[in-house]
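User: Fold this; tokens only.

Assistant: Input:
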Amino acid sequence: MKEYYCINLKFKNTEISSEIFHSHLYVSDKEMYFQIIDNKPNSQIDRHFMMSKGSHGLFEDNFEILETEVTLFLDKSRIYKT
């Protein structure tokens, strides 16, 4: 069974977006992933990110976590819950 944590984050590359996004961090025994909740009609935020220069880089190179409901520690894109 998966559980998730609410996280507010923003893109470090403001050409993608300068907005703050609500997202979910899903955690299971085999994987962890973020889902950005973007409810704007005709938004192409996923496309803008995918086409950006650093989209295949480390998480901390692309995103800044502003608020979480749990304490997270990032180390070379490994995410630890403390």
